[in-house]
Amino acid sequence: MVASECAPVAQAGGLGDVVLGLSRELEMRGHAVEIILPKYDCMRYDRIASLTVTHQDLWVPWYSGAIHCTVWFGFVEGRKCFFIEPHSQDRFFERGHLYGSMDDVFRFAFLSKAALEFMLQSNKRPEVIHCHDWQTALVPVLLYELYRDIGMGDQRVCYTVHNFGHQGIAREAVLWATGLTRPDHFFDYYRLRDEFNDTALNLMKGGIVYSNFVTTVSPQHAWEAQYTEQGQGLGHTLHLHGNKFGGVLNGVDYDVWNPEIDPLIPARYGSEWIDGKYVNKQALRERFLLTQEFKPVVASIGRLDRQKGVDLIRHALFYALAEGAQFVLLGASPDPAIGGEFWRLKHELNDYPDCHLELTFSVELAHLIYAGADLLVMPSLFEPCGLTQLIALKYGTVPVVRAVGGLADTVFDRDHSAVRRGERNGYVFHHTDPPALESAMARAIGLWYTQPAEFRELQLQGMQADHSWTRPAQDYLNIYEYIKA
Fold it and tell me: Is the dihedral of CA 136, 22, 371, 435 positive or negative?
């Protein structure tokens, strides 16, 4: 695995969970897995075991010279991880954050180059290199154009796109930095040239073109990326490479997200003894100073950005309160305008006894909210997979979602789904306007109040379904075997 994130040491979203969870499942099946990551200065070093220097002198070609690197080794949740630390005035991974620098394209182009150089110099020859998102999209390009001729001709690449919204748009300089010194070759439309700007390179497009197989994180999103605007301009490229493109639904790491063994919640519970959930509900109310009344708790957990349907999240809050429910929100925004709006909302509702907004992200609080809430609302405008609804299902928190991407693949409406009744697990709406959201929320809150036995049945059906990494890992193993052949 070559990635920019791995939970819990370096994580900005679901990518980190996928890298850890998939690696764990592959190892449990007897496969050797190693993860290559940047050595960020802001990592959770307390979650890395036995961190030691393993290679003192990795020299990575860069422009007309080379950058000296140290490679560290450590265990993250039992997984073998190598951390690349460049010693350069650019201080690529010493920024106090994972993403958000003006030179992010160069930072992660260096990661791609350094990962391959490390494999080359340390004589690592994995059968498959699995890389993720635009940050490592240059790995298959560099492998095919440079490294296959100097000792890495047998390696194959699986490339997973987690989010088409960030593609790594670059200028010509990134070619000279990484040794891809044929601009005319790479600016070809069928290689790396951006769809919208013929003077720019698109790293994600390069990853799609040069990889042996490309996946995204749900079957529905794979279709959306090819045939709707959700491909963000890459639909034609995906269509051209459709014979090596597919969707593999993400899994949830049940060693981390499982109310039966969760050390971060006051009371453990499962589908056989769900009453413990109500102990957690009481603790959640105490933690956020909500009144202890006979009301459902509606939650929103996750990043506050346009993708997540922030206007509908705000609407869900006020609608829940008007319908006699309580509302809890956990999440921060990378957008100052959205963040400011929710801070104003927090101050406006600060003394309200049925509402709490926690405008940060805390894994510990996320566990408590999943365990204590009755309903989870996800009105996403687009959602490649979504782990939030999968975790909610395991915790008996009924999801209310928009039918898009992975949400459509995993949540089946109690009243209107085509699947058999025993597989229905939530509420679904289709449009992006408030009435559509209200229609689903009204049915969910109404069931909680008027038919508690049927609401519990819905909870149990969600808890009993298997959304672990068992099936996705087998799907990826099938892909690995296919591209090795």
Answer: positive
Give the pLDDT confidence of 76-108 residue by residue, as tens digits.
999 999 999 999 999 999 999 999 999 999 999
The helix/strand/coil state of 10 is strand
Of 10, 14, 21, the closest CA to residue 133 belongs to 14
Give pLDDT tens digits for 7-19.
999 998 789 999 9
Q: Which domains does the chain have, with CATH numbers?
A: 14-251+471-484 (3.40.50.2000), 276-464 (3.40.50.2000)
Q: What is the DSSP string of 74-98?
A: EEETTEEEEEEEEESTT-TT-SSSS
- Cα-based distances in Å from 33 to 22, 37, 136: 10, 13, 17
Tell me the one-letter amino acid at 200: A
Does this model's pTM top 0.90? My answer is yes
- Cα 320 from Cα 59, distance rounded (Å): 57
- 419 residue type, one letter: V
For residue 466, give Cα distances in angstroms to 8, 125, 449: 23, 34, 28
Which of 118, 101, 134 has its CA nearest to residue 15?
Answer: 134
